[in-house]
Amino acid sequence: MRLPARLLPLSAVTAASTLLLTGCFSESASDGSAGGSAGNSAGGDGKRVRVAMMNPPRSGLSPLSDDAFKLSRWSTAETLVTLDTDGDAEPALATKWQQNGRTWTFEIRDSVTFHDGTKLTAESVVRSLTKAATASPKPRILDGVDLTVKADGDSVDVTTGTEDPLVPQRLSSPQLSILAAKAYRGKTVSPVGAGTGPFELTKVNGTSSATLDRYDDYWGGTAKSPGIDVKFVPDGTARAATLRSGEADVVEAVPVSQAALLDKDLVTEVPMPRTNTLYLNTGSGPFKDASLRAAARAALDTESIVKGVYEGRADVAKGLLGPALPWAAGLRKPTKRAKSVAPNGKTITIGTFTDRAELPEVAQTLQQQLQQAGFKVKLDVREYANIESDALAGEFDAFILSRATVLDSGDPAAYLYSDFGSKGSFNISQLSDKKVDAALEKAAATKTGDARRQAVVDAEAAVLATDAAIPMLHERVIQGDAAGVVGVEHDPRERALITADTYVK
C-alpha cells in the first residue's frame, strides 16, 4: 500500500531532535574497558571512537545487503582483496591470485582467526562466497555473473560462466565479506562476532546503535582504539549537532546546509564517485514515451540546483561518471537523443527520500522546473527504508537518487549493469534496451586498461541516449572529524572510515 505523500522542508529543524541526542553515546563504554583491553598500548590513550552515521541498517547488518558497507567502514568484516586508490586489487584475506581462463585461484592467508576463535580456511571462503552467489537477490556486484567456488587445499578456485577480467575487483566488494560459520546458522546472515577485522561487532541495537570492541588477535596488528560506539542518526541537522556538541568524534555525510555552521577545521570535503540522478520510468506511465523523457531533460536547470541546494559544493554533471573518474570526460562523444514534445499537463509523481538532507529540496526545485515546462508534478518523499521497494517496483514516474558509481568493484561497469541492464537488480528506470545491454556486455568482457575505459564510456553513452536517467550533479561528501581524532579515513568509495590506525587523543 502506498504511503501518503509528504515532504519535510529542510528548514523544519526541531529543538527536540537535537535534545534527543544529548548523552546519546553515554550508554556505551568510553573508558577503554570494553573488548578486553583497558588501555591503548598500540598508540592511543584508551578512548573509544564515537561515530554518528547517516543510514540505519536496512537488513539487520546482513553482508549480502548494502549494510555490508557499514561492516567495512567499521573494519569488522573483510574480503579476500582490497582496492588501492586507482582501483587495482591488493592482498587482504588472500595473499595472491592468478587467472587461468574462466578460473581464478586465490591463495588464502594463513594464521587468520574469526572473532569467534575459529580459523579462516579455504572452506570458510567457499561457504561465504557460495552463500552470496546463490542469494536471492544476489549482491549487485554479481549481477549477471555465474560464479562457482571450490576449495583446493589452502587455495580457492573461483570460476565464472564466461571469462571475467574483474574477478579480483569483484571480490573486494564488502558484500562478499568472509564470515565465520556461525554467521550462517539462522534464517538471515548475522555478522555479530563473526568477522576477521581489527574490531569485533559485539552488539547491535536494531536501527539505533552498534558496539564494536578491539579484537586483540587481529592478523594485521592490534588496533589503536579499544572500540567503536556507533549511533544511527538519519536526521542530517541532528547528526551535525553531535559534532558541535562534542557527542561524536566522527560524523559521516554532514548536510551542505550544516557545513557552514561547523568549525571549518573539523570539516573535510571529499570528491565522490557519486551522481545525483533523476531516474525516469521507461516501463510504464508518461515516461514510457521517449519524447516526454526528452522534455523532462530539457526542462532541468542543474546549475541552479548546484548553486542553490548544494551551495556550490557539487559539480554539474556532464554524464553519469563524474570528476572522480577524470578519464571519462576525455573519452565522451556527442550523444544523439530523442526530440522533446510539449508535456501538455501530463501528471507525474517523483519519489525521493529524506535520509540525504539535500534530496527533498532537490525534489522541490525539480517540481518547479518541470511544472514550468508543462508537467503537473506530485512529490512522494519518505525515509529510504520505506520507499526503496516501491522505487524498484516501478511505482514512480521518476525517482531522485544519490548513487555511487564505483561502489563495489572500483569499476563503473558493475554500477551501469545493475542500474540499466535489463536484468540489473537496481533497475529503477525499468530499462530494457538491446543496445544498452549489448554495450554493457561489451564493457564487462573487456580487459582492464584503456580499452575497458572506452567501452565503459560507450555504455554510458548508450544509457544517456535513452534518457532513462538524467544525471544532474556529482556530490562531494562532507565529513566531520573532532579535533582529537587521529587516522580516520576520508574514502571516496565509502568503504573505509574507522581503521586499525584510528584513535581519539
Give the averaged pLDDT, no decimals. 90
Rg, Cα atoms, Å: 23 Å
Helix content: 10-25%
- The count of strands amounts to 19
Q: Helix tally?
A: 14
Low-confidence stretches: 1-23, 26-44
Largest sheet: 11 strands, mixed
Q: What is the terminal separation in angstroms?
A: 50 Å
Inertia-based shape? globular
Question: What proportion strand?
Answer: 15-25%
Q: Which structural class do you get from the secondary structure elements?
A: alpha+beta
Element layout with pairings:
Elements: H1 15-19, E1 49-53, H2 68-73, E2 81-83, E3 89-91, E4 94-100, E5 103-108, H3 122-133, E6 147-152, E7 155-160, H4 167-170, E8 199-205, E9 209-214, E10 227-232, H5 236-244, E11 250-251, H6 256-259, E12 267-280, H7 290-299, H8 302-308, E13 314-316, H9 327-331, E14 347-353, H10 358-372, E15 376-382, H11 388-392, E16 398-404, H12 412-420, H13 434-445, H14 450-466, E17 469-481, E18 485-486, E19 503-504
Parallel strand pairs: 1-10, 1-11, 14-15, 14-16
Antiparallel strand pairs: 2-3, 4-5, 5-7, 6-7, 8-9, 9-10, 11-17, 12-16, 12-17, 13-17, 18-19
Helix pairs in contact: 12-13, 12-14, 13-14
Describe this protein's structure.
With 505 residues, the protein is α+β, with helices and mostly antiparallel strands. Helix content is 24%, strand content 22%. The protein has helices spanning 15-19, 68-73, 122-133, 167-170, 236-244, 256-259, 290-299, 302-308, 327-331, 358-372, 388-392, 412-420, 434-445, 450-466; strands spanning 49-53, 81-83, 89-91, 94-100, 103-108, 147-152, 155-160, 199-205, 209-214, 227-232, 250-251, 267-280, 314-316, 347-353, 376-382, 398-404, 469-481, 485-486, 503-504. Strands 1, 8, 9, 10, 11, 12, 13, 14, 15, 16 and 17 form an eleven-stranded mixed sheet that branches. Strand 4 and strand 5 (103-108) form a beta hairpin. Helix 12 (412-420) runs antiparallel to helix 13, helix 12 (412-420) runs parallel beside helix 14 (450-466) and helix 13 packs antiparallel against helix 14. The radius of gyration is 23 Å and the shape is globular.
